[in-house]
Amino acid sequence: MLELLIVSTLNGVLFGMLLFLMASGLTLIFSMMGVLNFAHASFYMLGAFFGFQISRWVGFWPALVVGPVLVGAIGAVVERFGLRNVHRHGHVPELLFTFGLAFVIEEVVQMIWGKSPVDFRVPEVLDFPAFTIFATNYPAYKLFMLLISIGIFVALFAVLTKTRIGLIVQASLTHPNMVAHLGHNVPLVFMLVFGLGSALAAIAGVIAGPALVTQSNMAALLGPILFVVVVVGGLGSLSGAFVASLLIGLLQTFAVSVNVSLADVFAVFGFTPGPDSMLDDLWRVTVAQIAPILPYLLLVLVLILKPSGLMGTRET
Amino acid sequence: MTDRVVNAVVGSASRGVPMSALARYGVWVVAAAVLAVLPFVFGSGLALTVMSLMGIAVIFSLSYNILLGQTGLLSFGHAVYYGFGGYLAVHAMKAIVANGLPVPLPVIPLVGGLAGLFFAALFGWVSTKRSGTAFAMISLGLAELIGSSALILRGFFGGEEGITADRTKLLRILDWSFGPQVQVYYLIAVWCLLCAILMYAVTRTPLGRMCNAVRDNPERVQFVGYDPRMVRFLAFCLSGLFAGVAGALAAINFEIANSALFGAVQSGTVLLATFMGGAGFFFGPVLGAVLVVYLQLMLSDLTGIWQLYFGLLFIAMVMFAPSGLAGLIMMHRPLWRARALHRMVPAYFVALVPLLVMLAGAALMIEMFHHLMVKAVEGPAMKFMYIPLHANAVGPWLVGLLMAGGGFLLFHRSFRVVAAAWNRTGVADAAGGRP
Amino acid sequence: MNAPAIELRGVRKSFGATEVIRGVDLAVAAGERHAVIGPNGAGKSTLFNLVSGLLAPSSGSILLKGDDVTGLPPQLINRRGLSRSFQVTNIFHRMSVWENVRCGLLWAGGQRYSFWRSVDNLSEINARTERVLADFNLLERRDVAAGVLTYAEQRALEIAITIAGGADVILLDEPTAGMSRHETDRAVELIRRISEGRTLIIVEHDMSVVFGLADRISVLVYGEIVASGTPQEIRNSARVKEAYLGQEAH
């Protein structure tokens, strides 16, 4: 039991930190530019595939740097030549633009790397168990992922609280018109923020690639959870995104190991539902089985109780 | 929104005076006649199938536009109500057959509509609390929730393979079995026309007008006595109702309901169709639905990566023609009225030629790249528009590059010609040229 | 006895640590034209936002025709007969001028959320829409998108939407802001006409408008009402001169 608790906590925090790596970029972009980048998870996917390809050519460590830089550059180009032109049409076309982009990126990835998972392996240096809790070997690579994401979290925190641009960015989270105080270089800052956000997602992609499955549907699988994170946390709230990331990370990890169904719960009270009902599955399905939909249930719950999200202040 | 777009939008909106009966009902009479005659013109099995799919897509897209175009709500999960419509229709058909109830097939879409309405009311109550980006994300989350749940609750949704029903086993009227596709086509056509008329009628009611007001300025709506959340909620319910009808018709057409009905592809397609057709106009989604169904079939025959072209076309429209096909058409209405449309033809021709050259060049390179990446085992020999070539040779790449680059430069220069032609027509509203 | 059209009792409003409205007591009698003046940042717009329901007061209560409306959402306050305009033009940009005005009429005309009646058949509402448009000289522009009107036309439309529903308490937030002298004169004439038989509360910077229009004037300085009285009293009040008019004069 204790073993499960520790391992699940570690995994949950890890997944949560990965989510936050993406959610932070997404939130920064949204707060400053008013665009929720639908293609954000696609940049994460591009990170994973670039990481895979570059690792093959020159090894994992260069890939960890070059991959995100390339993806960041692609993000900047997308902002400069795409989004910026759509901006004058309003927010809905902006969101649609990124939606179309996600669609195209998935198609291109499929064209280049195919539909099946690629063989993206953990680098040999890190391919050993870091420590053993009871009977479980905890892989060193996962520990490395955790350290990287915490490292970036700390760096981001430092930039946001210690630099001038960081302070303005922070202010713009609560007061969108603060962006104007960036001076006459607003378009450049937008381009950089969009590039940086994309690069952060790509870092998550490179480090998650070997541990999870690197496949052309990974953006479509993760994207919706990412958007749940930012809505549950409260759109435009960095701290909200952080809390929601950890919450959903832990929730999903723990749920997977709980094999209890509603029927089991009711059986404790001596009640067994009649068989043969069409919604019979509702009783018999275990928590572990519904783990994938828990984030969405959480979304609905939060919306009913606090429509603006856990720490949200903005209406739209 | 540029002024020009705004103008075009209002051009289609209402005027205060009631229209004459002919103008009011003429369009629908013509539409009914066209729908009735179509099977005699295009009678092949394929054509009937395609037209049936188009009819379903038209209802679905129009229902989607109640949200996107009329109320300003961007949904990424409209397939949820389509899916429930489909599932409940199949369950209803099964129950009717099993119990020998005297219910004919043509009323089944009503069951689907009620299912769509019920679930739209249920989920809409939560999601319409928010608008804008948050609403969009919530709709996506709800779609994921329902899509995944459909695979878990196998008893109701039938798991991966879904549930099936035989549409010919219901009570027959006038000896129509609904076995032949042409009979299904007419069923869809009648429902399509009925739904289109109803949805158009709704835009002309106080609620329909307030939907537009909420789209434009939800804050001000509060100060004329309306609750924007309530307006969004009611629009959402109506939209779910018609989406349910479309889903039921799809289920009748395929005689199956499976979890793909709920899928992200379904939700994405209706968004693409509505936007590309033109969300600002009532008839825009009709164009979009017909076009998208046609493109899906035609492009998937032509190339293995049609979805990529589809995505690129969508991005291009978002960037350069955000008011969609309908917007492009309506832009020319002042010219048409001034009988000056023909004067644009030479200028458009000058723009069209380099555009086509550019697109052909780009497509050539994409196809060669695709061939090298995906069909490497077949060797470098391939065909592009019936022309044999080698994907790894320098020549075709150079040609592609030249066509795309040169085409782009010339196309870009042709803008001036087009703008000048606009100005020469002297129609004030049309000033500004192409987007 | 008649309750005041609007009554504020000890209304306070804070944003975070800043208190913007600091205990306002104000009563406006039915049928009165009341102007609220004060320097920039005095809280005039906030006061309107509180009365119209856009913001809820931190404490105190607001009564509309004797009924407590404190904390009600804007649409409920509007349905009780209070309508307001905005300082920054707040119209339905993509809809036609005609549609804009009719939107202001639908609820008041008893249409609620009806989706079974065609707006084309609402002859009474359409006739009234036409009358309002004629009053505001907007009839020729009826089919134009509101977003492409000139600034002065948009300001007129803003007020047209506000009064279309026939509310008996009207709040106008700087109706003549940004208008030329000539446009202002016409606007004053219009406001005088439309406020006939209704209660009008107006926030305005242009003193000629205020003194030409108002029956009574309240002076709001730093979230407090420092004086309230007839135009004559306000003109002569030493306190007002010191706090406000004096500043402007120099």
Overall shape of chain C: globular
Structural class of chain A: mainly alpha
Largest interface: A-B, 53 and 49 residues
Number of strands of chain C: 10
From the alpha carbons, calculate the radius of gyration of chain C and give it in angstroms. Answer: 18 Å
* Mean pLDDT metric of chain C: 90
Provide the structure class of chain C.
Answer: alpha/beta
Q: Give the % helix of chain A.
A: 55-70%
CATH architecture descriptor name of one domain in chain C: 3-Layer(aba) Sandwich
Look at the structure and name the CATH superfamily of one domain in chain C: P-loop containing nucleotide triphosphate hydrolases
Distance linking N and C termini of chain C = 45 Å
In angstroms, what is the radius of gyration of chain A?
A: 21 Å
Strand share of the residues of chain A?
under 5%
Helix-strand pattern of chain C: EEEHEEHEHHHEHEHEEHH
Largest sheet features of chain A:
2 strands, antiparallel
Q: Briefly, what CATH class of one domain in chain C?
A: Alpha Beta
Secondary-structure element series of chain A? HHHHEEHHHHHHHH
Number of separate strands of chain A:
2
Q: Which fold name corresponds to the CATH topology of one domain in chain C?
A: Rossmann fold
Strand order of the largest sheet of chain C: 6-7-8-3-9-10
Characterize the structure shown.
The complex is a heterotrimer of chains A (316), B (435) and C (250). Chain A contains twelve helices and two strands. Chain A has 316 residues and is mainly alpha-helical. Chain A has a domain at 2-221. In chain A, strands 1-2 form a two-stranded antiparallel ribbon. The radius of gyration of chain A is 21 Å and the shape is globular. Chain B has 18 helices and four strands. In chain B, α4 packs antiparallel against α5 and α17 (345-374) runs antiparallel to α18 (394-425). The longest helix of chain B has 32 residues, at 394-425. Chain C has a domain at 1-81 and 201-250: P-loop containing nucleotide triphosphate hydrolases (Rossmann fold, 3-Layer(aba) Sandwich), CATH 3.40.50. Chain C has a six-stranded mixed β-sheet, sandwiched between helices. In chain C, α3 crosses α4. The interface between A and B is large, with 53 and 49 residues.
